[in-house]
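Q: For a teaching session next week I want to show students how multiple molecules come together into a single three-dimensional assembly. I've collected the sequence lines for a complex. Could you give me the predicted structure tokens for the whole thing so I can convert them for display?
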Amino acid sequence: MKVMKMEDQYEKISPIVQKASELWSSTCEETKKEKAVKEYRSSVTKRILFIAICVIAAFIVSGISLGTGSSEFGFIGSYEILWNHIMGIPQDKLVDYIICDERLPPIVMGLVGGAGLAMGGVVMQGIFRNPLADPYTTGISSGAGFGATLAVVADITIIGGNYSLVMNAFIFALIPVMLIIAVSKMKGASPTTMIMAGIAVMYIFGAFTTLFKLMAEPNALSALFIWQTGSLGLVTWDELPLIIAVTVFGLIYVQLYASKLNVLATGEETAKSMGLNVEGITNRILLIMTLVVATIVSFTGLIGFVGLVSPHIARMFVGADNRYLLPASAAFGGMLLVLSDLIGRTIISPSTLQVGVIMAFIGGPMFLYLILRQKKVTW
Amino acid sequence: MTNNKVMAVVVVALMVVVGCMAAIGLSITNDNSDDSSYEHRVTIYGNANGDDKLDEDDISTLNTLITDSIDDWGEDYPFADANQDGIITQDDVDVVQKYLNGESTRLYYQNAFDRITWVNYPLGLKIGTETASIEFLPVLGLYDNLYATDDNYTINLYPDKYPNAQDKVVIGTSKNFTVEQVRTSGVETLFMYPVHGDYFWDKAVDSGLADIASIILLDTQGDRAVGDVLMLGIFFNVQERAQKFADWSDGIVSELSVIGDVIEKKEVDVINAWTTGFTKGQFSVCNTNFNPVGHYHHILEFQEQYRGSNTSTVNFEDFVNTATDDIIVIMHRSNSVSLEDFDSYCQNLTEQAFPNTEQLKNGTIYAIEWDCSPNLGGIAGMYLLASYLYPDNFDTEQGYEYLQYFLDNFYAQTGLDAHTGFFYAVTPVE
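A: Of course. Below is the structure for the complete assembly, covering every listed component.
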């Protein structure tokens, strides 16, 4: 029997393990330790830099979006109008309305909605250990959409009051979550099975929505059509505080669990062996994410690909560490959605293309590229 | 099965049950088909006597209300409060008087959603429209004032029907106008279409746009359109022309009123032919709440299963098994089909759609073009259809005369013959 030489075995070990063994071996030199620490710090800096770039890009894109339209106010001009509005400095009522009530709410919605959906993608890809998981492919968006449709078209709500729309969306979004959790517990269920279950749910909800289309009155049908294609223009200032509050709460909550999500990503058994209450944490995070996604979807309609593409792109720059991946994806998602909305508003101006359409045009090819390029197996 | 499998099945079953219940609930709540009449046609505040005009008689009525101190005027004179302050005073008289003098004033009215909105009199003549509302302009003799449109494809698709409309300013996407788009378009008066919802008025008020431009929500389809024509006649001071249209429409409605009173109303199915499934065995059957059939209650009843919401998609077999003896098909003549080819176009389509049916054999399928079905010329189309459904009571040639009158007086395209390209009774096929 041929025995593999020590050197050959050593070569087969991955560079990371090599580095770790060198670092911690008693023979490791002090300079190597310092180098490794330096490299780590450098990678952290790069990650923070990427997040900062995304935030700055989001600010710039928002400024361009705010200043662009059939009335040209310019980048600085539009921020000036906004500043005057905040400071209560009198200005033309119509101009004030166009910037502050017509252009700004979709931008804020884009930033918040993009961040929330991207974060949903990170969480779902991590928890289900599936690169295809996001609020759309898991059927959560469709469930939320159906709940919102019930409220808007048929006036059927589970609870009354101001938050009936969101609660409808939330409760119906829980259905696919429950289904996916149930499927994931089945013996032999693969990540693909979970996504297939999500897609099945999406089709079922799609069928009901079609049923509604056939029976809806023309006005409701028109509203339903716009909602289904996904639009940032449906939201008003009255609704934004709720959306911002829920999304920010979700972002903070999930960020606090980022380290635990890292452990979860290594697999259920490993996580349990490390003393993690896997089911408890998974359920809590999924519940929070479902609430965030349902809240966003009930006001924007169905917007695909943000939750899928943003985490993948962010992962290329910051890696799989959720402590950085979550804020990076959120910042990138927000920027991407605002950019898509800007393209939709300007590409065939004065006609507008819904942001959902633009997102699909951008997201589809981008995602195909990522699939073909990506070789990693860690999500 | 494991517990998890059971749970998954239960979840899916739950979805199906909830969805079905919701759908049933929707179909019940949507049925408001019986609301087809309204008491006042001209819903402008200041029209105190509730007739079709805003004139000296309204001032007299208002003065009577003031001098007699009638407090409970709301029920008998619902449109008396011209300035919408909740009381009847000299100020209300002043509003009407300013209108009659041609002075600037705000005229309140109830729009197609029964909301109280306003126009700024005198109205600007740079008129913008959402596509369907464009129909009002030739009726009022204001087609030359068409200044801007939406980006709806029909304007470009039918250049003959909407002369020069393709060259106008494009405001934006229909159903989705923004204050910014309307403002930058330069439109002074905007006609909007209720099927798209009353999505714009609140924005116009909040932004101040409603103070400088007049935003008018109008119903182009069904009986209410006549009231809207009369209101526009008042707003634009073209009452005589508006009244001419109303008289034409009222005359036909009056003749048709024997259906249901003297003659028993027939049950007849009405189908959309502009859906892709029409010649492939998937029919989109119109229901009573479907806006484009707003005129049809004058001449027919819808079958029980087609009362209520929007449209029903029915396959060939199910449709044929329950279809009425007569079938009306609303056609959207493609622009590639000339007016002269309309008859053969309809014959071919209906032969493809209704092969081997009794209705095709009997020649009881009637194709009617969109323009004389739902829109402002629709009541003439109803007369034409009535002449086939009730041949003993109505004369087809009279129907063509009514349609010709509409085309000659209230239509943008000129030189048309009512006999060519608007109505076709299918030739029986053995």
